[in-house]
Amino acid sequence: MKGRMISPGKAQGEAIVSREPIGFYGGIDAKTGIVIEKGHELEGKSVTGKVLVFPCGKGSTVGSYVIYGLQKNGVGPAAIINKETETIVATGVILAGIPCVDGIDIDQIKTGDNIEVDADNSTVNVL
Amino acid sequence: MHLTKQEEAMLDGEMGEVAQKSLRLLVRLGEIYGADRMIPVGSVQVAGVSYKSIGDPGLDFLEDFAAKGAKVKVLTYLNPAGMDMENWKEIGFPEEFAKNQIRIMEAFRKMGIVVTATCTPYLAGNLPRFRENIAWSESSAVSFSNSVIGARTNREGGPSALAAALCGVTPNYGLHLDENRKPDMVIEVDANMEFNSDYGALGYHVGKLVKNKIPYFKGLNNPNTDQLKALGAAMAASGAVALYHAEGLTPEARDFDVSGLEKVQVGKEELKATFDKLNTGETPDIVILGCPHASLREISALADKVAGKTLKKPIWICTSRVMKEAADRMGFTGIIEKAGGRVVADTCMVVSPIEDMGFKTTGVNSGKAANYLPGFCNQKVIFHNVDELVKRCL
To answer: A91: domain CATH number?
Structure first.
């Protein structure tokens, strides 16, 4: 699948897919990489080392700093794939250096799929 | 987007990791918003300063960037912090909060940012020129600089403003372009506008009405800059107004023919309804003035009103450190403190943890503060003019 590069880099890993938006501030613990938002479909799951797939970001702009913190603490996702990346996630992945591609039909991806992300060429492959 | 040779080099990492990531952020935002190139900025104001707003994730990020040698290229000021940086202990800000706030300020200082934390940088030594491109964050400062001064800025987020400061440029889109500064709607004001709070109420009403459009005011009768500051702040809070024009008052107003635009009348009924709607409390636990940060004229006026009196409930007036020093010298601070009030610098009620300091009902004369206090600080609000607020504290 061809999308748009938001933040450069390449990664491969297991997909973890959220059908609902993710708010990183108060949504994911920057120390553990575990989703902590009450009632979220990924609550209790870890994003560490995974290809995190969700439609778009939501919530506080501090979320950008949480994405940066996840990466710095070594518990960040390997890559992020969005339907449409808004400025909170765009800011976070660029500062953190996490590969990110948007403009992808994320309905084609399910949790557990082995995904290859080549943000430099704006492509996503389900292997 | 067209980039200069120097910008290309920065993007390739030749000027270090911090510059590379910062410019990458600006380029990506520019592409998202359709910018053709980067433009130099004359000054920056960075938001996301209060520990209450950015928490540990923001603190960690800023310390990390500072440790990597990040240095700003242009005059850069800060938005208000979560507390008075000098008298926090005496005023009663929590110790743990203070420790983290001090670390945040130290990280900014290391980056070469002027740690004057204010939503009125234009009153504290960061004054842009007419048509100068700048990258400011705080919504009322953005409104004032765009509208009253005629400088040009989008409303930047904390990281994008910081990136602009570190690279000295911002993407050329939005309010940097002539075609996006035209008014969308005429607001005809027919009301007796006596107090700054009247301008706050007008701003609150018009912000709700126009949302993110550009209003053009007619009928404003000789407001001073404090009143224009109150008007813009409230419009940016209740709506997302980053620029307004006012006939005969703001520098770009004469550039536009507004004869074909939709017109809306605002009179005393609308203002009264706005005051009624924003009043949710009866007796104040505290009155907080200075949203946006008070000018010396506002501090002096408060000193006149409370001189020789004893306040049963405290009145705080928030301001920048620069104004506070002038107020100290003039004896205004002494008069206000003697009556039982305080001149609080570097912070404001919206970003400080007042709900943790025992206050439940706050009196304000600001449309912006009346808009934010219920949600951000869990306060009931009394929204009135300064004379009535002082009366209720005696």
So the answer is: 3.50.30.10
